[in-house]
Amino acid sequence: MNILVINCGSSSLKYQLINMNEEKVYAKGLCERIGIDGSRLKHTPSGKDTIIIEAPMPNHKEAVKMVLDALTHEEYGVVKSMDEISAVGHRVVHGGESFSESVIIDEEVKKAIEACSELAPLHNPPNLIGIEACQHLMPNTPMVAVFDTAFHQTMPNYAYLYAIPYELYEKHKIRRYGFHGTSHKYVAYRAAELLGKPIEELKIVTCHLGNGASVCAVKNGKSVDTSMGFTPLAGLVMGTRCGDIDPAIVTYLQDKENLSAQEVDNLLNKKSGVLGLSGISSDFRDIEDAVKEGNEKAAVTMDVFNYIVAKYVGAYAAAMNGLDAIVFTAGLGENNHEVRRDVCKYLEFLGVKIDEEKNQCRGVERDFSAEGAKIRTLVIPTNEELMIARETKNLLKK
């Protein structure tokens, strides 16, 4: 069974074609600058050099067509025809309360995705455009929606409700949703495999640390709490997002800086986080370089980031009444040994103990716990595409 995984952004499209019999990636690629001058496709067949195709992509439909042409190309394709693609798994960011698991896409599902667009205006609309483009070009191929929010639908109501008038939850569905669910699920289940224990017997905190970042409490294989909230703005400090702040700051800024609601929203989503705090960059690698050069603001920025990650891990250990393992994943979690070290220092009272030498790694699976550690610490590179493909395969089997 070959499954094509599609992840549509506003001006980009990432894809992988995976043979699910062996869970082997046949090809992967990226369409860049869709609807913008200079659009191009980077296509990488397994074991071969990347092919760069520069061509106009006025919309996502044209981008999907270029992807399918590349996958079936006589020279650098990996399948002979689209008939060899069994299904398409689509990443969809927001499913609201409508979806607690992946679903076959039909007209009702598309309407529900569209209804959630106001909760994820940057993500759901292009996700939906990608779905419709694939349906047009592959009308006989099953389409599956895999939601970032679905994994977190197992949270109890006391974890997802906000202390605002209850009728606002009933009317507008204002609650904690959480995101990065596909990543959190993949690394939690992979951690159980590496630890040689059933996921149903484990309490794990997964730390998805990148430009967007979140922490999740996974108890017995289910998400019971997560740091992102009604939107991806809540929780940890991120590349440009502020994370948790006093909500009164919003009205204070409106008054003192004479800002509109939209301007404050833009400031908190796009001008805050490590960019706003450091005044240097939203890229953690730039912050790291500045720390090495002795920049005090950069150093404080990283201190703030590490401190808040550790606070959430500690809180989730309490929420689950125990902790067996901490998993670090995504760009920063997988590649920055200093962040892992500094977060873990805060947690030594719980029984966290790391091996500094084992922790000197980038982008590989590794248990970097020291001998005698009560809580395991692991690096596990995330693989959201494989998780989407697995969800798609399992759904089709049902």
From TrEMBL:
Detail which positions bind substrate: 91
Q: Which InterPro entries match?
A: Ac/propionate_kinase, Aliphatic_acid_kin_short-chain, Aliphatic_acid_kinase_CS, ATPase_NBD
Record-listed Mg(2+) binding positions = 7, 384
Cofactor binding note from Swiss-Prot or TrEMBL? Mg(2+). Can also accept Mn(2+).
Q: What is its main location?
A: cytoplasm
Q: Does the keyword Zinc-finger apply?
A: no
Which residues of this UniProt protein bind ATP? Answer: 14, 208-212, 283-285, 331-335
Any idea which GO molecular function terms this record carries?
A: acetate kinase activity; ATP binding; magnesium ion binding
Its BP terms in the Gene Ontology are: acetate metabolic process; acetyl-CoA biosynthetic process
Which cofactors, by name? Mg(2+); Mn(2+)
Locate the active site. Answer: 148 (proton donor/acceptor)
Q: In which pathway does it act?
A: Metabolic intermediate biosynthesis; acetyl-CoA biosynthesis; acetyl-CoA from acetate: step 1/2
One Pfam match? Acetate_kinase
Identify the PANTHER family for this entry: ACETATE KINASE, ACETATE KINASE-RELATED
Membership in a protein family: Belongs to the acetokinase family.
What this protein is called in its record is Acetate kinase
The gene from which this protein is expressed is: ackA
